[in-house]
Amino acid sequence: MLRTLVRPLRWAITALWLAAVVVLLALVLVTHLATTFVIGGPSMQPAIGIGSLVVVNPVPIDDVRAGDMVTVRADNGVVITHRATRIVTLASGRYLELKGDANATVDPVLVPERALLGRVGTILPLIGYLAAVLATPSGPLAVLALLLGGLLAIWLVEEFESGLEEKTVKRGAAEPMGSPHGAAT
After folding, report:
1. Which pLDDT tens digit goes with each residue over 63-111?
2. Residue range 26-55: mean pLDDT, rounded
3. Of 107, 124, 133, whose CA–CA distance to 49 is shortest?
4. What is the topology classification, in CATH, of domain 36-127?
5. How many C-beta atoms lie closer than 10 Å to residue 37's C-beta?
6. How far, in whole angstroms, is CA 181 from its chain's centroid?
7. Which is nearest to 161 in space by CA: 172, 150, 153?
8. For residue 99, how many other CB atoms are within 10 A of its CB?
9. Beta strands across the sheet bearing 53-57
């Protein structure tokens, strides 16, 4: 009975561990091969939630259409992801008018063309939290500790399972042939 519970537990822990490794590898690939940003505010909810990771594809301003979600870097260095409402051409150049989906009005300042980083291509909900943790000095160590803890849990469950199997084999060998718990021929 106990053995029938331990084996699925081992499979579940192993599957979770493998899924964590795959997610981490995918996150490392995405963040190193693409331009990504973690959403830290609620202005684009519900389209983009807090803690989402957005993959931004570079595009020229000519390819931006009203309704596109774009990411810009303001003159003060702050990165903003909002929806383009229109492109404005003035004597001093072209500008984007932006608005967060959760905001009642458009942003108070037009964004110059040079600030455009790109259009949002992919949104990965909640993955930004993990990316933010990995960006801290202690983040990779914490993730490594969790992965090693998972391996330890898998090993302990396997040891427990093999101990149960050894007890079953020893018990089966010690019982007389006619015993109801013995092996049938």
Report:
1. 999 999 999 999 899 999 999 999 999 999 999 999 999 999 999 999 9
2. 91
3. 124
4. Umud Fragment, subunit A (2.10.109)
5. 20
6. 50
7. 153
8. 17
9. 35-38, 53-57, 116-124, 69-73, 79-90, 93-99, 111-112
Q: Give how far Cα 27 sits from Cα of 34, 36, 96, 120, 146, Å.
A: 10, 10, 30, 17, 16
Choose among 109, 80, 63, 171: nearest CA to 179.
171
Residues 131, 27: Cα–Cα separation, whole Å: 7
Taking the mean position of all CA atoms in its chain, how far away is CA 137?
19
How far is the C-alpha of 158 from the C-alpha of 109, rounded, in Å?
A: 61
Cα 146 to Cα 165: distance, rounded to the nearest angstrom: 29
Alpha-carbon distance 115 to 120, whole Å?
15
Count of residues in the chain? 185
pLDDT, position 29: 81
Whether residue 184 has pLDDT greater than 70: no
Give me the residue spans of the domains in the chain: 1-33+136-166, 36-127
φ, ψ for residue 111, nearest 5 deg: -105, 125
pLDDT at position 164 is 72
